[in-house]
Every structure is written in C-alpha cells, then in structure tokens.
From TrEMBL:
GO MF annotation terms: phosphatidylcholine lysophospholipase activity
Designated name of the protein: Alpha/beta hydrolase fold protein
InterPro entries named among the record's database cross-references: AB_hydrolase_fold (IPR029058), Hydrolase_4 (IPR022742), MAG_DAG_Lipase (IPR051044)
EC number: 3.1.1.5
Length: 363
C-alpha cells in the first residue's frame, strides 16, 4: 500500500487540516427517488426539482470525483483513475462516517460514491423519531442500491471497474445485489457483512417475534434491546478499536441529529432476517459472478460468523472466486481499528483490487 495512514496521535488535526479540505475539492451531493411499493424508483432528482417530491421519497448520496481530486490536491496519489468504489454502509451509519476511508480510496485512484440507505442520514425514513431505523421491505434496500450503482456508480467508473465496498447491513444488501445482478459489479469487498444479524435469539425465533409484533401494528416501534442515541463513548463496546477514530465518528453524530439513528424497529428486525433467508439460499449464492473478498471480525457484536462462512462456501461452490479473511482481535467496524490492524486490512483490499479483472484485461 502506497497511502500513508493518518497518525492516530494527530488524528483530529490531520482530518481537519488535510482530509476534509481535500474531500471538499471533489465532493458532490445528489438525490434519487427510493423504490416505492409500485416498483418505481431510481430517478435522479436535480436540486431544483426536489420540492416536487416528499421527503420520504428521496435518497441522499455523496460522491467524490477522482479526476478532480488528482487535479486539485497537493497530496501524492496514483497517476491514473482506476475506476469507482460504491460504499454500502451499515445499520445506523451515514456517508460522512467514511471520510477517512474515502480519502484512501481517492489516493489509490478510485472515485467514491456513497448512497445513504433508506432510513439513514439525510434520506427518507418513514418514521419521525430520529433514533429509529424502519424499512417496509428489505427489497427496497437492494433495488435502491442497484439503481445507484447502475446510474451514479457506473457514470463515475466509466469504462473502468466498478467496485463494491459493503459493511455490515450494507454487506447483506450488497451480497443480495451480487446475487440478483451478477454482472453489475466487477469486484466486491464485504466487510463484517450482515449475512445473519445477532438478535440474542435463534434467527427463526427472532423472526417469529418480530413478525408477530408487525402483525399487531408495531412495525415502527423500537425493538427490545435498543435505546435512544447516547452521546457518551464506552470503549468497552469497541474492543480493540482506535479511540481516535471512534471519537471522531461519535462527534459527528453528536453534532448532527440526522446521524443519530441508534435503534431498530420491529419492522427492520423482521426484514433483516428475511434478507438473510434470501441471501443464504444456495441457488442464489451460485448466481454470484463478481470476485469476492469477505472480512470477518473476531469480536463481532452485531453479526454471526458462521453464516458468513456458509455464504462464502456456497459462492465458491457456484464457481465464483471468493475468499474469507479472518481478522484476529478485531471489532465489527474494521475500518475503525488502530493503524496496526487497519494497515494490513487496507493492504489486502488494494492487493485484491490490483488483481486483473476482465475490464483491465481488455485495455
């Protein structure tokens, strides 16, 4: 890896003085309609036309153009544009949480495009409580991400590879995207993917309880085990994590109410488990064609490890290249680990991306 990692001892200063100004040079924001029950969605909406839509119809996204970054930054970076990375983030996350990772991708030659999933960030939510995440159907996530990749992501990639980087919930959504649209993505990285979430109960039991609550009209109510946003940090919840990185992300959440989602609804729990069922069908795993790199965190409090292993094995059985990398002494958010872990993690990602793919071979 040629990118120099941010010094954790000077993390805030480097983010404020270098990373954020660099990102501002090439940052673009936009809006897209979400997938509706009638099957309509994926329409890109200009700023002047936003008032024609209800706030719950629109999805917010942020993109960073590699060409503009190269022309304007003083930082040494790759001489050529290598494609685009679409980031599919996790439960209760938001686009700006990925500023540091975006900077590394830009330095390595990739434009970056981040869709704020339904229920997250500045996108539509369907609930008024800023703590809650609700979704009517998991297929909305997949359809929205597919429309974003095919229109926005591909426009930034051009004739270069389009890469998916997907974390946690976004990894479960990304896995289903790879099954449903096998030729859309050229390479995929799933980091701590939510193939099956941890619920404290057997998945079938958890689904039954959540479905029963939804049938009683409680789909938009907070599920047990969750609570409102807490601005304080308990590092015991981030085993092995970088205090500098965790603190930076928490400060972002404290400063912006739209970033303070913290709790699943019964509807979200039911749909996350429905998504898991769909992803793990062997016939669907066999549809994946994109070379796949999957990371598993040892101390993961949010997703189950064995379904990740099962998913990778079934993708391999279908004839697709898939590798599972286990990261010892690591927490769920691998991109927020200290430099000693983050460096090898990024090295493995960029080595994977450096391997030839079909588009490169056609140049």
């Amino acid at each position: 890896m040629t990118v120099e990692l941010i010094d954790e001892e000077r993390y805030d200063r480097i983010m404020q003085d270098t990373v954020l100004p660099d990102l501002a040079l090439c940052r673009h924001e936009g809006w897209m309609t979400s997938q509706s029950a009638s099957g309509k969605g994926g329409i890109l909406v200009g700023e002047a036309d936003r008032d024609r839509y209800g706030s719950d119809e629109l999805l917010h996204y942020v993109c960073y153009d590699r060409g503009e970054f190269q022309d304007r930054t003083s930082e040494p970076c790759q001489a050529r544009c290598r494609g685009a990375v679409v980031i599919s983030f996790g439960f209760t996350e938001f686009a700006d949480k990925y500023q540091e990772l975006t900077w590394y991708f830009l330095m390595e030659g990739y434009s970056v495009c981040i869709l704020e999933h339904w229920g997250h960030g500045f996108s539509g939510r369907g609930v008024s409580d800023p703590n809650l995440v609700w979704v009517d159907h998991w297929q909305r996530y997949v359809a929205d991400l597919a429309a974003f990749c095919s229109q926005v992501g591909r426009s930034y990639a051009g004739d270069r590879p389009l890469v998916l980087y997907a974390h946690s919930m976004g990894g479960g959504v990304g896995a289903r995207l790879l099954e449903r649209f096998p030729v859309m993505i050229d390479k995929a990285i799933l980091s701590s993917p939510m193939i099956v979430p941890r619920t404290g109960l057997m998945p079938a039991v958890a689904w039954g309880a959540a479905n029963g609550a939804c049938l009683m009209g409680w789909s938009r109510r907070m599920a047990p085990g969750f609570g409102p946003f807490n601005p304080e940090i308990n590092m015991d919840n981030y085993p092995g994590g970088s205090r500098a990185r965790v603190t930076w992300a928490r400060r972002q959440r404290r400063d912006q109410v739209r970033f303070q989602t913290s709790a699943a609804t019964f509807g979200w729990v039911r749909e996350s488990l429905e998504l898991s069922r769909a992803v793990l069908r062997p016939s669907q795993c066999g549809q994946v064609e994109s070379p796949l790199l999957v990371f598993q965190a040892q101390h993961d409090r949010f997703v189950l490890p064995s379904p990740q292993e099962r998913f990778v094995a079934q993708v391999r059985d279908g004839g697709c290249q898939a590798e599972l990398v286990k990261i010892p002494d690591s927490m769920h958010e691998l991109y927020q680990m200290p430099n000693a872990v983050l460096g090898p993690y990024l090295d493995r990602i960029f080595a994977f991306l450096d391997e030839p793919c079909q588009l490169d071979e056609e140049d």
